[in-house]
Amino acid sequence: MQETNPFLLNGKRVLVTGGSMGIGMGIVRRFVAGGARVLIADKATEPAQKYINSLQASLRNNVAVINVDLTEQSAPETMITEMVRIFGGIDILVNNAGIYPMAPMMEMKPELFDKVYTLNLKAAAFTCREAARQMIKQGTGGKIVVIASIDSIHPSSVGLAAYDSSKGGVLMFTKNFALEVAKYGINVNAIAPGGIATEGSSLSSPMSKMSKEEIEKITAGFIAQIPLGRMGLPDDIAKVAVFLASSAADYMTGSLVVVDGGRLLM
Ligand SMILES: NC(=O)c1ccc[n+]([C@@H]2O[C@H](COP(=O)([O-])OP(=O)(O)OC[C@H]3O[C@@H](n4cnc5c(N)ncnc54)[C@H](O)[C@@H]3O)[C@@H](O)[C@H]2O)c1
């Protein structure tokens, strides 16, 4: 019989990297509201712990947080071991953790370039691999959602050469890995967010050092470039992540879904 609501995540076991803040936390909130059980893996655990404490008692056991620095080579294995220990396995991975430091290439230090690639591309790839290994062991397929960027397909500003190339890489990784694991019933898709108001985007922006008036002026200019007339919110990305992680997306793999308020139309 056809399911009545293909977007349900009831009981699904989900790992969200970088889920303590920003887009990751938006995704955690949506998934928990949809009935999923979620492990947040982040190097900053305090905001996640605060969120868990704020949940009603019946939901509190559905969410856990672990302290992981994803740039450590052991991180992917550690996260999956914890998923198995806490929830008995993994059905969905949301690969979200990423950094976007501004540094023009002409001034780029090799160490910073490595840092961006290690987190945004290498950690993402090996976390996908570790999650897929566990999904294959379970034999019931799975869903992997990778948070890429509109910068995976179009540069948004000078200063993001390392970031943009890491996100271009993660898009092509998504497509190739989707090909590799399709035979196991594992769907791998990516989301390309546009400008989303998060803790990270306000801190890394040059605006963090500006006056209130300057910020308002620049924000208005930025919004003028967005046909839907506003910055994105973490929940705008989270709702699409729910779609890609649910059975509604069973026939999608290797796709990139752009969620940018129309920014790339300009
Ligand atoms: N905000 C945007 O406008 C935007 C646009 C396009 C794509 N994205 C992508 O979305 C993702 C999330 O961005 P955001 O704006 O929510 O960021 P954010 O900085 O607000 O949150 C990122 C989270 O990842 C965690 N994290 C960072 N480095 C980590 C590490 N080494 N190990 C473990 N956890 C780590 C942080 O502690 C934080 O909780 C990133 O991949 C980013 O590239 C963001």
Account of the protein in words:
The chain has 266 residues and is α/β, with parallel strands linked by helices. It folds into 2 domains: 13-196 and 233-259, 3-Layer(aba) Sandwich (Rossmann fold), CATH 3.40.50.720; 199-231, no CATH class. Helix content is 45%, strand content 14%. It has 9 helices and 7 strands, in the order E-H-E-H-H-E-H-E-H-E-H-E-H-H-H-E. It has helices at residues 22-33, 46-54, 57-60, 75-87, 110-138, 161-181, 199-204, 212-224, 234-245; strands spanning 13-17, 37-42, 63-67, 92-95, 142-147, 186-193, 256-259. It has a 7-stranded parallel beta sheet with strand order 3-2-1-4-5-6-7, sandwiched between helices. Helix 6 links the parallel strand 5 and strand 6. Helix 1 packs across helix 9 and helix 4 packs parallel to helix 5 (110-138). 42% of the residues are buried. It binds nicotinamide-adenine-dinucleotide.
